[in-house]
Design goal:
This protein is of the alpha/beta class. Helix content is 20%, strand content 21%. The strands form three sheets. Strands 1, 2, 3, 4, 5 and 9 form a six-stranded mixed beta sheet that branches. Strands 7-8-6-10-11-12 form a six-stranded parallel beta sheet, sandwiched between helices. Helix 7 runs parallel beside helix 8. The protein is elongated, with a radius of gyration of 31 Å.
Length: 454
């Protein structure tokens, strides 16, 4: 009898003090919106109805921020008017399983055009990242892959982004969760949802920038208003973009809308979700992090920026990139670049082949013969432009020739001289600290630079 009484007492206590678990940042954490909460429910609960019944009964004034439900998630996000105490005001909501505070997400810096004295090439753009190697080895261009970009939206009118939206276009799916006027702050105009994720706020669009890195194709654009200086492609130009807008034209984003975008992108069939955004302090169980972990378990890959706070220390990492299953990616300034080198006495020297030339076989070994041993010491400008006496024989070897004044002979003249002497390869070395890249009019002619990465 005593045991039955204890069990009854515990059951009564449990039913009268239903404690709603908080996940993620506590109230008052920097970057939280005062009195704004995401309330999560099981699939079989009518979240908006449960919230309304609770707040009507307790006479607490509130505003629904977003009510979201699909096959992956069911939550209602609210603002409570006046003073708030989540523990007391949210715990009695029937059917709710946990809540999270709503976090502000700073707007990514817009992309600005900058001038460079050196014109980039598609090879430079994608070699350092390994993209060219992946394309060469595996033939991967993103065909059949859907990439969700959760950001400021995408200006799909740009011809490099396909010039249209919907089936048959590069930007194939998407959704605008907030509208132009939404700022993300507590006094923001209400979000206005739209099926079109277009970012047409101004000339700078971070979401379009990100989507372009992923899948732009600027080849063949004839209109001079759009044609870039370099006809580039994104990493995966054959991929489809799913665009989800969570920023208005100004201000910040809120992580309840970002969580909704994550769930929607996964439900829409995105294979990869990209979020080039972040905030802190970082909690691995905020609403967005929970969403990421859930969609990852269902087979979707989520790629997120690690944040822009590296100057604050090696271990500073932004949310939601701290989610357990997120792939957090950091940017860094590279002080070295992979280069093709030849080795002379085991010392590496960077070289470039002309566009008309084939590559040397990796590991190929050739003896080197110097055309004029005094060419460097005497600043000879016409090395390899006329026969020496006695003539140099270079049968099967690589002939080393000093570059000089182009008016006395270009690479074609100097390398013809080497090959006529029987050389298998012609190596031109610089007469200064820099050297104009060889256009390569003769097979196996190369330029060698003094500078080298070790």
């Amino acid at each position: 009898m005593q045991l039955v009484g204890i069990i009854s007492l515990l059951a009564a206590f449990s039913s009268s003090t239903h404690a709603l678990v908080r996940r993620g940042a506590p109230e008052g954490t920097p970057g939280t919106i005062d009195c704004a909460y995401m309330i999560n429910f099981p699939d079989n609960v009518d979240g908006p109805a449960a919230v309304k019944a609770h707040f009507d009964a307790t006479k607490i004034k509130y505003t629904v921020r977003i009510a979201f439900k699909n096959k992956l998630a069911n939550f209602v996000s609210v603002n409570i008017d006046g003073d708030c105490d989540a523990t007391k005001q949210l715990s009695p909501i029937k059917g709710a399983v946990y809540y999270s505070t709503v976090r502000l997400v700073e707007r990514p810096e817009p992309v600005r055009r900058s001038q460079s004295e050196k014109k980039p090439t598609p090879e430079q753009i994608h070699t350092i990242t390994g993209v060219n190697e992946v394309r060469k080895r595996f033939g991967l261009t993103g065909k059949g892959i859907n990439v969700a970009v959760i950001d400021t939206g995408v200006y799909w009118r740009h011809p490099a982004m396909g010039g249209g939206f919907g089936d048959g276009f590069k930007v194939a799916k998407g959704y605008d969760f907030v509208g132009d006027k939404f700022t993300g702050y507590i006094d923001s105009p209400p979000a206005v949802e739209d099926k079109d994720p277009d970012d047409n706020c101004d000339v700078s669009s971070h979401g379009t920038h990100v989507a372009g890195i992923v899948a732009a194709d600027a080849r063949g654009i004839k209109d001079p208003a759009w044609a870039p200086a370099v006809p580039f492609t994104g990493v995966a130009p054959d991929a489809k973009i799913f665009a989800y807008r969570v920023f208005g034209c100004e201000g910040v984003a809120d992580d309840d809308y970002i969580a909704a975008a994550i769930y929607q992108a996964a439900a829409d069939g995105a294979h990869i979700l990209n979020l080039s955004l972040g905030f802190g302090p970082a909690y691995h169980d905020d609403g967005t992090s929970v969403a990421i972990d859930k969609v990852r378990r269902l087979g979707h890959f989520v790629i997120i920026s690690a944040g822009n706070s590296g100057a604050s220390g090696s271990f500073i990492h932004g949310a939601p990139g701290v989610a357990h299953s997120a792939i957090g990616v950091a940017s860094f300034d590279n002080v070295a670049a992979p280069q093709t080198v030849i080795r002379v006495d085991n010392l590496p020297f960077i070289y470039t082949l002309g566009a008309a030339n084939g590559n040397f076989a990796e590991g190929e070994v050739l003896d080197i013969i110097v055309n004029n041993l005094d060419a460097d010491a005497k600043d000879v400008q016409d090395d390899g432009t006329k026969p020496l006496n006695p003539p140099v024989k270079a049968d099967g070897k690589a002939m080393l020739i000093r570059w000089g004044s182009p008016s006395l002979g270009g690479s074609a003249v100097r390398c013809d001289y080497a090959f006529n002497a029987g050389a298998k390869a012609c190596i031109l070395y610089s007469d200064t600290e820099t050297m104009t890249p060889n256009l390569g009019f003769r097979k196996n002619s190369i330029n060698v630079y003094y500078e080298c990465c070790w």
